[in-house]
């Protein structure tokens, strides 16, 4: 019944960009290798990515440098390195930082699925950056918190499920790539019994439609996906039922996002310091100054790295800490990016300048699921005391 | 000669781009080392497009003093967390000292003001939540000039930047007062969904509404002060009460056995079915909507409602996150109520003084006054902590405990008759604690 061999459908990596350092994923200093890629070829390309270039060549080199799989159990569960790598990337290009996050969490889904069909070669290739794919969990994360309803519906069929529905925007996908998706399973009467999570391969029958242009993140290869009776076999199932799985990985999923916030904030502080020799005499009159912002960022980074030691720690309090750190990061990125533009003035306002781009990137950090409002909604839900009904 | 001159930098007056002779501008064909004067006149600023004439020599300025880098917020004001008796006491004390201080009160509840001890006697008085509210939160906020954020949870605290994160936004503060109380500590055998907790008006109100239809079977789990008071109030309100206690007699943590036995007898006389020495293994809801209390010895008790009175605990998460010293409560200075972190104070049920929580009403006003003076940096002799007199609202058998009893020391009977028992603890000549159980006037 399975219609296409998954391995054949996986897109192969483009050749590495010229001038990249050779990667060896086994050696310890992943973050510094990622730093060299980020400050070199990526920084040069950031404007082009902002205008719509999907930087798979950079992603491939990050994969070879070990920057896309440090958090996996098989690589020692180094969430600190995964966050550090994402931060270095986001410091120079928020769009690519977002791609790294999407790529990282997809690897997390595969490994945590425990499905032998997903944990083997498929995961290895993904973690090395030989193939690419992201996450379509924006709608499900909101749906499972009660914020909106599920977009995809599945029906049981012999050997698996048939899935239909439309996801409005899914990033880091393209023909031949893949993403993690979630669908509600409908019974004969139309009621939902439970949810399944599965690998969605962007095969021929999967319609990818262009999204309207966004004001940022245009290089994230974001598409609308429409499925009509898409078949999901046992080998593609990440979790069935999906709720316990989502509950287990949720904190890790959100914690990784702090890498984006840390990076965009650090890039903004860099931009402030860059003009200090020329403009410090007037910039001293601005509300937010680099030393104070850096102190706040250092606190946030330390907090994220501490939480990163136990990414699968269950319990309400750990999740609350992660959600709050995620809000802290989003708010700091907003303030720092705005401050960077104020510090740079007209220079930062040029369309080619990084500060105006970072303003849009920071707003993305604040609105990408879970957005600040979703995080607060969820924390209020978790903190409310339950009473008998 | 010019070959030996150090490379210089030129700044674009329009956009601030710096042309560094050492680096040149390879993208427009200027090799590294190209002197400014050798740049063709039609060369354009690679950033903004103005010409060479719009550049001037760049002289880096002296670094600006870090005067503005001080992290303390410029938006002054106090933020108080928690609108129970402690939080409102802090607001009133701050307002009494400073008419103009901006104060924001953040609270998970509605902010309505009520006298918490009344929750122990209100069922038998036939009262509802509306009867207990003395002033609505919004009215009190208006009267005291406070911004009230009701139904708002505190999620995070960054003391270094003096920012408090809440579910309705992040607040800056100059002084922060934590008065968030303690939460019922529920053992795993008592699920939230099946057990009422009477620690605030909302919890009490839910129980009151659930019992509004007439006499019901109620199991009270826990024979401490709250459990004993509620059991008596429920019984007086006409309900069939079972009091489940893991000790041999009620208030075993506080009273000597002779006193506890009297209370036990008084409770039974009131019709309360006291089950001493039992442990609850679980609570479930059956198909009929009743609650089934499973005891560890295999017994089952079928009731309509379960009330958990198994003690309180201060949540450590916020304190730990912010690096506040914490030991059973937020550690505070016994005189100023200052925590271990500058700018943050705490009072009420959430604190620990000398390692001991102090969850009584009486000290709150004095704590609030000392705290407000310390926060506003005004002179004050300081709070003096003393063990409050404990009066149990058990009308069947009034109990008064004064002083600081030592749980390991013996109690000596001073007088003992059918009406009344009086005991004390002594250390040499010094009286550590006195206890009076029963009605009637205390002997001189």
UniProtKB/TrEMBL annotation, chain A:
Ranges in a coiled coil: none
Chain ranges of the Acyl-CoA dehydrogenase/oxidase N-terminal domain: 30-130
EC number annotated for this UniProt entry: 1.-.-.-
Name of the protein: Acyl-CoA/acyl-ACP dehydrogenase
Broad EC category: oxidoreductase
InterPro entries: Acyl-CoA_Oxase/DH_mid-dom_sf, AcylCo_DH-like_C, AcylCoA_DH/ox_N, AcylCoA_DH/ox_N_sf, AcylCoA_DH/oxidase_NM_dom_sf
Entry keywords, A to Z: Oxidoreductase
Top-level taxon: Bacteria
Gene Ontology molecular function: oxidoreductase activity
């Amino acid at each position: 019944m399975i219609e296409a061999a998954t391995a054949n459908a996986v897109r192969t990596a483009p050749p590495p960009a010229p001038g990249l350092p050779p990667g060896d994923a086994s050696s310890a200093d992943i973050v510094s290798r990622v730093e060299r890629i980020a400050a070199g070829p990526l920084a040069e390309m950031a404007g082009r990515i902002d205008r719509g270039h999907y930087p798979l060549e950079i992603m491939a080199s990050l994969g070879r440098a070990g920057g896309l799989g440090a958090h996996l159990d098989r690589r020692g569960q180094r969430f600190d390195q995964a966050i550090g790598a994402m931060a270095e990337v986001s410091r120079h290009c928020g769009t690519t930082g977002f791609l790294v996050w999407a790529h990282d969490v997809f690897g997390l889904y595969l490994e945590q699925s425990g499905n032998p069909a997903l944990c083997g070669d498929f995961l290895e290739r993904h973690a090395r950056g030989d193939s690419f794919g992201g996450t379509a969990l924006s709608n499900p994360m909101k749906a499972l918190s009660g914020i909106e309803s599920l977009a995809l519906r599945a029906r049981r069929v012999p050997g698996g499920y048939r899935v239909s529905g439309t996801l409005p925007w899914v990033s880091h996908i393209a023909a031949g790539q893949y993403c993690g998706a979630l669908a509600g399973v409908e019974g004969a009467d139309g009621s939902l019994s439970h949810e399944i999570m599965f690998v969605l391969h962007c095969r021929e029958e999967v319609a990818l439609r262009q999204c309207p242009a966004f004001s940022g993140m245009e290089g994230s290869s974001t598409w609308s996906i429409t499925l009509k009776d898409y078949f999901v076999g046992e080998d593609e199932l990440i979790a069935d039922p999906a709720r316990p799985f989502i509950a287990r990985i949720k904190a890790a999923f959100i914690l990784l996002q702090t890498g984006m916030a840390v990076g965009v904030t650090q890039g903004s502080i860099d931009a402030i310091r860059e003009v200090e020799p020329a403009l410090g005499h007037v910039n001293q009159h601005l509300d937010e100054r680099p030393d104070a912002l850096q102190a706040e960022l250092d606190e946030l980074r330390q907090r994220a790295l501490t939480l990163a030691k136990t990414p699968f720690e269950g319990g309400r309090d750990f999740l609350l800490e992660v959600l709050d750190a995620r809000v802290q990061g989003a708010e700091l990125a907003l303030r720092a990016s705005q401050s960077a533009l104020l510090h740079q003035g007209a220079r930062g306002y040029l369309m080619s300048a990084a500060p105006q781009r970072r303003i849009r990137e920071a707003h993305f950090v604040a609105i990408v699921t879970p957005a600040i409002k979703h995080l607060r909604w969820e924390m209020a839900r978790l903190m409310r005391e339950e009473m008998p009904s | 000669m010019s070959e030996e001159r150090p490379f210089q930098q030129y700044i674009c007056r329009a956009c601030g781009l710096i042309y560094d002779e050492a680096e040149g501008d390879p993208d427009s064909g200027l090799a590294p080392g190209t002197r400014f004067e050798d740049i063709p006149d039609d060369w354009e600023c690679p950033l903004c497009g103005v010409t060479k004439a719009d550049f001037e020599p760049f002289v880096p300025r002296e670094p600006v003093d870090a005067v503005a880098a001080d992290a303390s917020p410029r938006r002054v004001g106090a933020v108080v967390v928690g609108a129970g008796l402690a939080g409102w006491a802090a607001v009133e004390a701050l307002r009494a000292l400073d008419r103009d201080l901006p104060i924001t009160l953040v609270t998970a509840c509605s902010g309505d003001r009520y006298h918490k001890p009344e929750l122990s006697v209100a069922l038998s008085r036939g009262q509802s939540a509306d009867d207990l509210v003395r002033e609505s939160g919004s009215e009190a906020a208006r009267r005291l000039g406070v911004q009230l954020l009701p139904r708002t949870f505190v999620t995070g605290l960054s003391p270094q930047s003096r920012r408090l994160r809440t579910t309705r936004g992040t607040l800056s503060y100059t002084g922060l007062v934590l008065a968030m109380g303690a939460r019922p500590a529920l053992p795993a055998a008592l699920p939230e969904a099946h057990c009422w907790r009477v620690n605030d008006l909302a919890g009490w109100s839910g129980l009151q509404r659930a019992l509004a239809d007439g006499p019901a079977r109620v199991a009270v789990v826990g024979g401490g002060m709250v459990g004993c008071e509620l059991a008596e109030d429920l019984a007086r309100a006409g309900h069939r009460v079972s009091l489940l206690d893991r000790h041999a007699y009620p208030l075993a943590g506080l009273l000597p056995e002779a006193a506890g036995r009297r209370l036990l007898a008084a409770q039974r006389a009131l019709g309360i079915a006291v089950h001493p020495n039992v442990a609850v293994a679980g609570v479930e809801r059956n198909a009929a909507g009743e609650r089934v209390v499973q005891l560890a010895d295999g017994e089952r008790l079928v009731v309509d409602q379960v009330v958990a009175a198994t003690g309180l605990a201060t949540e450590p998460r916020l304190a730990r996150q912010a690096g506040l010293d914490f030991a059973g409560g937020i550690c505070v200075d016994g005189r100023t109520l200052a925590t271990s972190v500058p700018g943050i104070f705490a009072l009420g049920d959430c604190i620990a003084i000398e390692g001991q929580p102090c969850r009584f009403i009486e000290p709150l006003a004095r704590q609030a006054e000392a705290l407000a003076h310390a926060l506003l940096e005004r002179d004050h002799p300081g709070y003096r902590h003393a063990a409050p007199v404990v009066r149990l609202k058990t009308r069947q058998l009034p109990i008064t405990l004064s002083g600081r009893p030592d749980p390991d020391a013996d109690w000596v009977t001073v007088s003992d008759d059918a009406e009344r028992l009086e005991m004390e603890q002594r250390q040499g000549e010094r009286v550590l604690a006195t206890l009076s159980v029963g009605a009637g006037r205390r002997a001189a």
